[in-house]
Amino acid sequence: MCLDNMQSKFIADAMLGKLARWLRILGYDTYYSNDIEDWKVIKIAEKDKRVILTRDRGLCIRAKKKGLECFLIPPDYDIISILAKLSIKYGIDLEARIEASRCSECNGILEKVDENRWRCTRCKKEYWKGKHWKTIEEILIKAKSKKEKDELSYNSRTRNRGGQNTSQDSKTSNNEKIGVAKLN
Ligand SMILES: [Zn+2]
């Protein structure tokens, strides 16, 4: 499936509430319910053309058999690593702009109420740039630098693969892989 030039939409499985909130803050249409069953995740992904986000390998295999896009999140990934990976794979913009955010509670679209306040058009929850916004920005800075590191290590691995594969080259490449594993 080609995801270029297209704003990705997501569906997070019932275990990934935190990730769903993050994607909504970043402005991505993300379906989430804490009691959704696997068959329904697949059904909604199919209907709305959403990328499935899950830690459940079985669910991912079933989804891929149906031709759906599924991102299997490794069990040891924290939110920073997940956001970095999603940004590389689906072009997620790691910049928080409250005016482009969605409601983290219900995925609704926000409308501006006054200079510093926004309100969800669906559940009416209000948002403003309080102290928490600073925390959001700090985490996104970390996610961005993680993304850069991941991209660098990916590029150097690809370069090594493409070059003359002398034993020295493959040794370097293995060392890099170990480095990456440690970082994660
Ligand atoms: Zn809402």
UniProtKB/TrEMBL annotation:
Pfam families: Mut7-C. It comes from the Archaea. InterPro entries: Mut7-C_RNAse_dom. Residues 148-184 are annotated as: Disordered. Residues 153-176 have a biased composition (Polar residues). Residues 9-139 form the Mut7-C RNAse domain. PANTHER family: MUT7-C DOMAIN-CONTAINING PROTEIN, MUT7-C RNASE DOMAIN-CONTAINING PROTEIN. This is Mut7-C RNAse domain-containing protein. It comes from Acidianus hospitalis (strain W1). The lineage of its organism: Archaea, Thermoproteota, Thermoprotei, Sulfolobales, Sulfolobaceae.
